[in-house]
């Protein structure tokens, strides 16, 4: 399913080329993005791939959008101005009619959202671990603390601790986050979803994204430079590191080639 068919970044120029977000695209010759069911924006740190996702999210008024602020150059809202200058087109529904609005579940999920969820779980764990210590610090003996945790209230606290411990793994928490939020029939913008995921879980998530796009009417626009995601996703890949944001194969990308060259260099060590 293609809900968002294309997106054209502003080509307007301003007098001061250092103002965000105009400075991100200064000197670029970019044609409109034409999206597939799964589209990847690849780029190294600072390339602007996350900025592009946020601009799209703001233009479409997606849940999770983050309104960026420009530099302190007078009272002009340059971020809002840039977004207003961008253009987009919706795709067609199954009957061939142009889509008028995005599905309700559509959202922008940032790497910060995942890290925040992990931080919440970790904070709960720290609080739970300190609960018995605090109980004893108030003058209770170790036996009294143990007796307390046998009461109904204490048992509820133990269940809370067990829940926190079960969810303590960063990777498991991140995978659960995606399981909770990636629902059928929606457009999703994902910014570096590989954060906190092992290579195996990155591949697992990419396979799940392929399934959601292929079978459950989802569309994804993903910013990533993970070779495991890039090599698994059935996607169109825009290379944001190039001046014209050219479409590339995953195995031609710089970050992927770096991994390949590294392991090729150490190939003999794997054969021992």
UniProtKB/TrEMBL annotation:
Gene3D superfamilies referenced in this protein's UniProt entry, alphabetically: P-loop containing nucleotide triphosphate hydrolases
Domain of life: Bacteria
Alphabetized InterPro entries for the sequence: AAA+_ATPase, ATPase_AAA_core, Bact_Antivir_Def_Nuclease, P-loop_NTPase
Pfam families noted in UniProt: AAA_21
AAA+ ATPase domain residues: 35-243
PANTHER family tied to this protein: ATP/GTP PHOSPHATASE, ATP_GTP PHOSPHATASE
Protein name: AAA family ATPase
UniProt source species: Dorea acetigenes
């Amino acid at each position: 399913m293609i809900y968002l068919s294309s997106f054209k970044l502003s080509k307007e120029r301003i007098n001061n080329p250092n103002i965000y977000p105009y400075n991100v695209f200064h000197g670029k010759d970019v044609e409109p993005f034409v999206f597939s069911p799964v589209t990847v924006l690849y780029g190294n740190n600072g390339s602007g791939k996350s900025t592009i996702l946020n601009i799209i999210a703001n233009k479409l008024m997606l849940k999770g959008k983050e309104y960026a602020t420009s530099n302190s150059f007078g009272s002009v809202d340059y971020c809002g101005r840039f977004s207003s200058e961008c253009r987009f087109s919706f795709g067609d529904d199954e009957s061939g009619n142009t889509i008028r609005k995005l599905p309700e579940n559509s959202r922008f999920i940032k790497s910060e959202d995942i890290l925040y969820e992990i931080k919440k779980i970790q904070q709960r764990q720290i609080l739970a671990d300190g609960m018995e210590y605090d109980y004893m610090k108030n003058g209770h003996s170790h036996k009294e603390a143990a007796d307390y945790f046998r009461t109904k209230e204490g048992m509820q606290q133990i269940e809370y601790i067990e829940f926190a411990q079960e969810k303590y793994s960063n990777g498991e928490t991140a995978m659960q986050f995606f399981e909770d939020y990636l629902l059928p029939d929606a457009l999703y913008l994902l910014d570096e979803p590989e954060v906190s995921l092992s290579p195996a879980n990155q591949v697992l998530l990419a396979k799940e994204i392929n399934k959601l796009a292929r079978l459950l009417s989802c569309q994804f626009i993903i910013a990533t430079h993970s070779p495991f995601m890039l090599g698994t996703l059935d996607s169109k890949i825009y290379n944001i590191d190039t001046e014209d944001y050219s479409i590339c194969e995953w195995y031609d990308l710089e970050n992927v080639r770096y991994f390949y060259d590294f392991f090729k260099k150490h190939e003999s060590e794997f054969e021992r």
